[in-house]
Specification:
Distance between the termini: 87 Å
Number of strands: 7
Mean pLDDT: 76
Largest sheet: 5 strands, antiparallel
Strand order of the largest sheet: 4-3-2-1-5
Order of helices and strands: EEEEEEEHHHHH
Low-confidence stretches: 134-156
Strand content: 15-25%
């Protein structure tokens, strides 16, 4: 699953694709049918990449990517985000059995299911993330040796070394007198 470049923006519903960056902020495109483009101000907008989001777990935090993969495996039983809280809770026990039930609220589950329904049909959702073993197993990834950087030509002439006059070797040695 390659969710690189897919972000959640604080204060805005839905998910966005990071298109670029300018001096005013990040250029984002919504993933819904409207394809709305916005510029999110760098100083007062928080972006969260879906690759970096974790869910509270009992022992250790769960990665959102793993939970989305589990939801995709059970997509026949995935409820709508507007379902009853008890239905959401029982579904999350199936797809993320080690999540912390006291810290993960129903609103979090609704948000995750909304995100899943937005990205489930996207090609990024089904392709392997860059740098994973799945990508290497397909043979798509070729290992190429790193090219050495070429020296930039300069217009300045290299300083020439002037030879200093050689010191004359003394034939007399001064040993103890």
């Amino acid at each position: 699953m390659n969710l690189r470049g897919i972000v959640a923006v604080s204060g805005r519903p839905g998910l966005f694709k990071l298109v670029g960056q300018n001096k005013g902020g990040y250029v984002l495109e919504s993933l819904d049918a409207q394809k709305l483009k916005i510029v999110a101000n760098i100083s007062n907008t928080k972006l969260a990449s879906l690759e970096d989001i974790t869910i509270y777990g009992e022992d250790e935090d769960l990665k959102l990517i793993d939970v989305l993969a589990n939801i995709d495996a059970k997509k026949a039983t995935a409820p709508d985000a507007k379902a009853d809280n008890n239905v959401l809770r029982s579904f999350f026990i199936e797809v993320a059995p080690s999540h912390d039930q006291e810290k993960v609220y129903a609103s979090d589950m609704k948000k995750i299911l909304t995100w899943y329904h937005l990205i489930k049909d996207m090609p990024l959702f089904t392709e392997a993330a860059p740098g994973t073993e799945e990508e290497g197993a397909k043979g798509d990834l070729e290992v190429k040796p790193k090219a050495t950087p070429k020296a930039k030509p300069t217009n300045a002439k290299a300083p020439t070394a002037k030879s200093a006059p050689a010191k004359k070797a003394s034939m007399t040695s001064k040993k103890g007198v």
